[in-house]
Write a structure and sequence with these properties.
16 strands, alpha/beta, 291 residues, homodimer, nine-stranded mixed sheet, seven-stranded mixed sheet
């Protein structure tokens, strides 16, 4: 499995890149549809051409049908499905062409290892990099969110206390760098394993995303915006002291000095600087100014 | 409810004070009994006189019977039970006298609000301060652990994401200062509410204790030692940015910059300095020296 750090195609200037939406699963599909509506807007609305990649899903074409109806209902002009199930299908020129023409790509949930084992390192993956770099919005929910970064949580156990061997990484699609994403974060009790990951890999920023919540990584690849009902939890292990390097068995890990940020909708974070952003639209600043 | 910050009796020098053991509940009673054996040792073994305070428990005298047999089995010379159920009983001279002669006091689990509403601010509580200050070990498990500090989690909800109004404080016994204790920490998913507490009260250090795990606050009232099977999670909100002060309803709180320490058995922490201690016996130092 290649952990591709850079797209192989020439990329447009950073300013022209599209946003990446990382959704914690179970996004609202019935009421306000805050997250899906934002995707539809970023994908260009009536002029949009959206490709749904459903490889992760065990539902077969059903996942495509559900999201297709949702996106058409949200005003997207054209929506097609793409479901490679073998690596050679992920190199197929027709699929690459569909991504090449897309203004938005939506990667469904399911099994993130199935997704990356079919797609990562293929021409389809390269087409995804290029799509993002020329301004398309690339979104993933649940497994599709986990697979977005270079380092992916493949599987692991639940719990609040970090433990040895509770989490296993593999190589993700690599559309985002320097972070590791965990989804269904609050609902499946994943704070312990995210602490364990950053203790073992302090160069990575841990990003835990609750259900019906989305982290949007904007074109500068550093500004992260939170939307949705829950919170995005960011775990920074830059200054961590740990005994993870000599861990044995399934015992608690010592992790001292991790910095934690819990950010509800409306807040922004600087991934590169690893701190809360008050610009461009943080509620703190706005509301304090109005007092 | 008085939040008593200081004992009313004259206190011995700090060096002569006893340790305080804060246990996360469900401590091992059948196998190694690491935590209860440490209590028995600190209480003086065969020369020890232990008082069990069972007010929190709904089991009546049964809680006393269980711990009495355990402590006698661990070699304690004398074990008696004390179960005030009304505040006037907690002012009763006989109970105060029992505590005055004790080398160890063990406060059972149950309902911490019941415990503090009967005991906090009474002569029995004053006798507990005095016992600690003249060198007796004072231990509490579960509800007995929560009640140990001046600020006590009375009740709250589970979850990893901090939310408004998810946790309610009241005044504890006040034997420990400057911290707020939560127990059954991993098992009942209490990281979110501890983050919410320190966001609202950044002067308090949050101390979350897993089941079968104990934080021993030593005589200097700053050195915290972890023993047992799980971990002690320390949440430091000194540098937190938050919107907690304008929280409404049961929505996620913004908490940015909390520092988190997850410490398994064998590790030490400096409560006053808010950092990992490598002395007097931290495994990191020992093991590194042996490499």
């Amino acid at each position: 499995m290649a952990d591709r750090e850079r797209p192989v195609f020439p990329v447009a200037g950073l300013g022209a890149a599209g946003p990446v939406m990382v959704i914690g699963g179970a996004e609202d599909k019935l009421r306000d549809k805050v997250i899906l509506a934002r995707f539809a807007t970023l994908a260009g609305g009536i002029d949009g051409r959206v490709v749904i990649v459903s490889t992760a899903s065990s539902l077969g074409d059903e996942a495509v049908v559900i999201y297709r109806e949702l996106f058409l209902g949200l005003g997207i002009g054209e929506v097609v499905g793409l479901r490679p199930e073998e690596r050679e299908q992920a190199d197929d020129p027709a699929g690459v062409e569909a991504i090449r023409n897309a203004t938005g790509v939506f990667i469904t949930g399911g099994n993130q290892s199935r997704l990356t084992q079919v797609v990562a390192g293929t021409k389809l993956a390269d087409a995804l990099f290029l799509a993002r770099d020329r301004g398309a919005v690339v979104a993933g929910t649940s497994a599709g969110a986990s697979a977005m970064a270079s380092h992916m949580v493949a599987y692991g156990r639940s719990g609040a206390t970090p433990k040895n061997r509770m989490v296993h990484l593999s190589a993700g699609l690599g559309i985002l760098q320097g972070i590791v994403i965990d989804q269904h974060f609050e609902q499946r009790w994943r704070i312990g394993r995210l602490l364990a990951v950053v203790a073992q890999s302090p160069s990575l920023l841990g990003v835990g995303i609750d259900e019906d919540t989305c982290a949007i990584v904007h074109a500068d690849r550093s500004s992260l915006e939170v939307i949705g009902r829950g919170a995005v939890t960011i775990v920074d292990g830059a200054n961590v002291k740990t005994d993870a390097y000599r861990g044995k068995g399934y015992r608690p890990l010592m992790v001292s000095g991790a910095i934690l940020h819990s950010l509800p909708g409306g807040y922004w974070f600087d991934l590169r600087g690893r701190h809360l952003l008050t610009a461009p639209s943080a509620p703190v600043q706005e509301r304090e100014a109005s007092e």
